[in-house]
């Protein structure tokens, strides 16, 4: 059977992801879809030519309509607007909920077996929206943010230490907002616990930088938000699902009792495979982390309440 990855929204994140997947040679086909027909055609040509340069066997196509965007194993949705300096991700809520709903309504019927990876922001609320729009099983719809936030934490640890590049395991859970929950005690440097190599103040500084890592890039870019690290992080999820490799990554999923929460989406470690979310891993959190996770969940809940009142009602 052919492995086919669909990407809908081929702007900064979507195009970078397509380039990354095509040059890695991990799927037979990538199909791109965007409102901007000329851009998507140009990206399909350019990325297909890159794949040929890389001697990759991946074919890159674009879809003129929803019917052609079909039979995908994995679909990544980045359609939506990014924030600009001075905005929070939450400011994108109603605009992107409208886009997410119309995208899901358009494409789900042509993709009965797909696993959906949501990237559009505000991430957790968009996973909730996608699930609600499509009425799919919760294991089939998940969001990318935790791998990115963990990579940022790892970057800031490396920056602080001045060494250990490639040897840092960092772990972040919770919603993809300013109150995400970086987990210092589940983070290591060359196998050593983080608190053995950095003191409390240094760890707090890294946690603060991680929480504001997205905004830092938005402020510098001026026109939009980060895309290389988001795209690479998404490619790891696509690869885990296509290869059924059962890797554990932090992803945004609908909680149904895990960590004591119901009917709310947040980032938690999950095992990924061909069925999407195959297991939610319940880490043991200390009192402070439990309180921080509760605060992060409350922020997502506030967005979901706004959606229920102003969008779904
Ligand atoms: N979850 C995460 O960690 C991250 C999330 N994001 C989010 O991802 C989204 C995309 O970001 P960028 O790629 O930088 O934005 P972008 O503006 O470069 O690309 C968005 C693309 O979506 C397309 N689009 C809009 N409505 C559409 C529709 N109905 N159907 C098909 N295509 C449609 C636009 O034409 C555009 O090409 C934003 O909401 C951003 O906040 C970005 C980075 C990280
Ligand atoms: O900051 C943003 O708006 C985009 C994003 O989610 C990130 O880079 O973490």
Largest beta-sheet details: 6 strands, parallel
Mean pLDDT: 97
Based on the structure given, which CATH architecture of the largest domain is correct? Alpha-Beta Complex
Shape: globular
Termini separation (Å)?
41 Å
Detail the poorly predicted runs: none
The CATH topology assignment of the largest domain is L-2-Hydroxyisocaproate Dehydrogenase, Chain A, domain 2
Secondary-structure blueprint:
Elements: E1 4-8, H1 12-24, E2 29-33, H2 37-53, E3 59-62, E4 74-77, H3 93-107, E5 115-118, H4 123-134, E6 141-143, H5 146-161, E7 168-169, E8 172-173, E9 181-182, E10 188-189, E11 192-193, H6 200-211, H7 213-221, H8 228-242, E12 248-256, E13 262-273, E14 276-280, H9 287-310
Parallel strand pairs: 1-2, 1-4, 2-3, 4-5, 5-6
Antiparallel strand pairs: 7-10, 8-9, 10-11, 12-13, 13-14
Helix pairs in contact: 1-2, 1-8, 3-4, 4-9, 5-6
């Amino acid at each position: 059977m052919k492995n086919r990855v669909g990407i809908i929204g081929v702007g900064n994140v979507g195009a970078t992801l397509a380039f990354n997947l095509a040059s890695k040679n991990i799927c037979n086909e990538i199909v791109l879809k965007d409102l901007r027909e000329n851009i998507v055609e140009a990206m399909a040509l350019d990325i297909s030519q890159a794949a040929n340069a890389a001697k990759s066997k991946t074919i890159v196509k674009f879809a003129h309509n929803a019917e052609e965007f079909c039979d995908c194993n994995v679909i990544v949705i980045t359609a939506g607007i990014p924030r600009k300096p001075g905005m929070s991700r939450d400011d994108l809520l109603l605009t992107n909920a409208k886009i997410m709903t119309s995208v899901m309504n358009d494409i789900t019927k042509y993709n009965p077996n797909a696993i959906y990876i949501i990237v559009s922001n505000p991430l957790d609320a968009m996973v909730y929206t996608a699930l609600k729009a499509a009425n799919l099983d919760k294991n089939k719809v998940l969001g990318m943010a935790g791998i990115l936030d963990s990579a940022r934490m790892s970057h800031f640890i490396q920056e602080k230490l001045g060494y250990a590049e490639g040897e840092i395991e960092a772990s972040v859970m919770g919603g993809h907002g300013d109150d995400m929950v970086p987990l210092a005690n589940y983070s290591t440097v060359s196998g050593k616990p983080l608190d053995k190599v950095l003191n409390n103040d240094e760890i707090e500084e890294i946690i603060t930088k991680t929480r504001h890592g997205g905004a830092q890039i938005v402020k510098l870019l001026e026109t939009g938000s980060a895309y290389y690290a988001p795209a690479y992080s998404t490619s790891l999820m696509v690869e885990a699902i296509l290869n059924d490799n059962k890797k554990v990554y932090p992803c945004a999923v609908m909680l149904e009792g895990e960590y004591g929460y119901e009917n709310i989406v947040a980032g938690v470690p999950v095992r990924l495979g061909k069925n999407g979310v195959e297991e939610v891993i319940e880490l043991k959190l200390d009192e402070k982390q439990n309180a921080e996770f509760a605060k992060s969940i409350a922020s997502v809940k506030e967005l979901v309440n706004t959606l229920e009142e102003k969008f779904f009602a």
